[in-house]
Amino acid sequence: MSETVFTPASTYRPKEVAQQADHSRVPGGSYEASRAAPTSSRDQILKRENRCMAIPAADVPVPARVRALAGAATLDPVWRNNLGGVTFRATDADGIRYVKWGLRNAETSMRAEAERLRWAAPFTPVPPVLDEGRDATHEWLVTAGVPGLSAVDPRWIAEPARAVQALGRGLRALHDALPVVGCPFSWSVPERIANAAVRGIRVPDDLRVSPPIDRLVVCHGDACAPNTLIDDDGAWTGHVDLGALGLGDRWADIAVAAMSTEWNYGPGWHDALLDAYGVAPDATRLAFYRQLWNAT
Q1: Which residues, including other chains, have CB under 8 Å from residue 94's CB and lie 6 or more apart?
Q2: Which CATH number fits the domain that encloses residue 256?
Q3: Residue 291: partners with Cβ closer than 8 Å, 6 or more residues away
Q4: Number of domains in the chain
Q5: What are phi and psi of 90, to 5 degrees?
Q6: How far apart are CA 26 and CA 34, in angstroms?
Q7: 3-class secondary structure, 263
Q8: What's 148's DSSP letter?
Q9: Which residue in the list 222, 241, 249, 253 is annotated as catalytic?
Q10: DSSP letters of 17-80?
């Protein structure tokens, strides 16, 4: 079984983007609201941090902190987010580990991700945390590899039916495995609105009151296709990027997972995702959580 492999995700971006107040990134990766008056919706487009990702150039500079964390291991850049953060694969005689490094930002933190990974590890397959830290401007997270390929690896882009089935089954398994009782983290609608406000984003009034919760679960928090790992037989093997994991309605994850099938595999896979998860469509909740995702 392969170790986790990160692959290009040029399609890993929303086809819809929120129309919010203008904002600008300030040093350290956080956001603050612009004082400019609202302009046209075209000028109000918001792209969430870490939403657009791609494989970086092979010669990307290795930050000194990453080199120190990796020691003598061979480093290969495998993933870049739109804040300039890079994940490196470190390979040596002891095996493979991953070093995630980037600017500190206000949406999530690598410290928060480390806490969530450690909490989730007894219940579901996630990357084991090896190290985590930060300085005045940057943060880093070191994890061990997890078996499987990302669901947006070319192997699975070429077999979307099997990939989507693994996505749905993996998400359902995650929701069934993680215990609601005792979970110390929240991904509720009020929490997400408050987090957006810290970043200078005002969520529209019609998204401030959610539909009644269908089933309270521990949500992944970023259930897009790249964050599910799949083995050679087409079965899900684990999940990555759990920095926003927390309690919420299961539809908050389902809506994003279904939407991401369109970005990554093309139209027509929405219903297959729901079937694999084992749930009938809920148009109201799907629409609400899709819009909330794009607005925050």
Answers
A1: none
A2: 3.90.1200.10
A3: 207
A4: 1
A5: -110, 120
A6: 11
A7: helix
A8: S
A9: 222
A10: -EE---EEE-TTS-EEE--SPP--GGGGEE--TTSSEEPPPTTPPPPHHHHHHHTT-EEEEEEE
Burial 231-266 (b: 16+ CB within 10 A, else e): eeeeebbbbbbbbbbbbbbbbbbbbbbbbbbbbbbe
Which pLDDT tens digit goes with each residue over 184-236? 999 999 999 999 999 999 999 999 999 999 999 999 999 999 999 999 999 99
Residue 247 pairs in a beta bridge with 186, 218
- Domain assignment present for residue 268? The answer is yes
In eight-state DSSP terms, residue 181 is T
- Would you say residue 4 has pLDDT above 80? no
The question of whether 214 is a catalytic residue gets the answer: no
- Which domain covers residue 163, as residue numbers? 149-295
Structure tokens at 138: 């940057």
Measured distance CA(273)–CA(279) in Å, rounded: 9
Length in residues, the chain: 296
Enter the pTM of the model. Answer: 0.82
Residue 32 covered by a domain:
no
State both tokens at 61.
């500079």
